[in-house]
Amino acid sequence: MLRNLLGKTTIDSLSANGFNISYNPVCVQSVRWRRKPRWIPKAKTKIFRIPNHKPLLPEETHEWLRINNNYKLQMNSVRAFFREEVMNKKKLIAQGQTPADEEAEFERCKSINDEWNQEIANIRDARYARIMKKRCEKLETSLDHLERIKELQMTKIEERVRIQKEKSTTFITRKNIDQAIEHALSNQVDFNFSIDLQGNIYKGDEKPGSVAKKEAN
């Protein structure tokens, strides 16, 4: 498995450099290819450890300072040279242009900018038009739905009103209260009755035996 991942050439080169690479897929030795990341803290065994820096010889220090100074001097010279070249080119360009040329260049850039702004404005207006159209269609659909719901509610209300009007003919009012009283007195209804399992009705104080006698008579 390790041979398939790394390849025979890589494994052979690592083995030649002193790494103990085994071909056994069960025993795999990991190789640390990078340094410890900066966000990982210092090891506890090295927190209070002060490394002893080897002092440099005076000859080495003098040579290091000489090389460093030469490098800085050369780099500063190169930067100054390029800076001077850029300034000279700017002066030549400025000398070759007249105020009329500058004005024409400004107008050309301004016209290009205006064209870009107009193109973006057209795209924005088209997008706003599409959005408003979708919103209007959605509002129209919602209004139609609300109108249908309102019509259905009005139909139900009218049906209820019609039923109540039909029932109002039997209501007792101040005008027909006397007639209602006379009708109730002349047509008395006795609600004191019971019904057996066979469906026989027993009114008042009647008993099952009296009903049988009536049926026999």
UniProtKB/TrEMBL annotation:
Chief place of localization: mitochondrion
CC terms in the record's Gene Ontology section: mitochondrial small ribosomal subunit
The keyword Ribosomal protein appears for this protein: yes
InterPro entries cross-referenced by the UniProt entry: Ribosomal_mS26
Keywords linked to the UniProt accession: Mitochondrion, Ribonucleoprotein, Ribosomal protein, Transit peptide
Pfam family, one: MRP-S26
Sequence intervals crossing the membrane: none
Subcellular location: Mitochondrion
PANTHER family for the chain: 28S RIBOSOMAL PROTEIN S26, MITOCHONDRIAL (PTHR21035), SMALL RIBOSOMAL SUBUNIT PROTEIN MS26 (PTHR21035:SF2)
Family to which the UniProt record says this protein belongs: Belongs to the mitochondrion-specific ribosomal protein mS26 family.
Protein name as annotated: Small ribosomal subunit protein mS26
Organism: Clunio marinus
